[in-house]
Amino acid sequence: MKYKRVLFKLSGEAIDDPKLLDEIASEVKSVTKSGAQVAIVVGGGNIIRGGIASQDGKLDRSVADYMGMLATVINALALTEAFKKQGIKARTMSAVPMERVCDTYKIREARKHLENGEVIILGGGTGVPFFTTDTNASLKACELQCDAVLKATKVDGVFDSDPINNPDAKKFDTISFEDVLSRELRVMDLTAISMCMDNNIPVIVFNMNKSGNLKKVLSGEKIGTKVG
Fold first, then answer.
1. What span, in angstroms and rounded, lies between the C-alpha atoms of 119 and 105?
2. Read out DSSP for 68-83?
3. pTM above the 0.90 mark?
4. Are the CB atoms for 96 and 70 separated by under 8 Å?
5. What is the per-residue pLDDT across 127-184, written as a single tens digit (0 to 9) for each?
């Protein structure tokens, strides 16, 4: 494996698709059997996006962000149970303490779980408002000393424009952090990209909907786009 320990950033929408969820679990099971250590940060936008938190900005931003953190814990618990059903050793850890629901995230304990072959699903964001799940993924990757951040998407990598709306969009096989920042490409938010750049952690953006891609990425095959 080229990347032994990785942080996998997954959107909350995947939790709503049972077929995709089963496919993700199968992919993760395959790579952990090969010795890879996997931490996952899952989003929560599928639960609160378009709801009360976005109504004309009338809700206090801090409150909205805490709602989002709780949503990520819900998704993390669902993902953990889906993994366990496929025989994957997995546990939920939350940056927002809720001992009756899941473990509280602690760096050393999280590293130990990874070393013991467990998949850890990280909910609760950073534990404080005003940070996205992208930034949380970069932060956790730094704390857990990951070799790379893997960003799952519905397209084949990073493009110079939206490939869904522009059939002539150009895909990058590789691109520097500096170019992503200067072009303001929507890979991850700018804080997340800057954090990975400062800590020399590459970001691999790839299409999770294609079976086998996760294993190919970890093996170092040229799948998606490498930002670094």
1. 13
2. HHHHHHHHHHHHHHHH
3. yes
4. yes
5. 999 999 999 999 999 999 999 999 988 888 999 888 888 888 899 999 999 999 998 8
Bridge partners, residue 181, by sequence: none
One-letter identity of residue 177 = F
- Token pair recorded at residue 173: 């096989």
Residue with tokens 């990280």: 122
- The 3-state DSSP class for residue 159 equals strand
Contacts of residue 100, Cβ cutoff 8 Å, sequence gap at least 6: none
Q: Tens digits of per-residue pLDDT, 96-138?
A: 999 999 999 999 999 999 999 999 999 999 999 999 999 999 9
* 193 contacts 225 by C-beta, under 8 angstroms: no
Q: Which two tokens stand for residue 44?
A: 């929560």
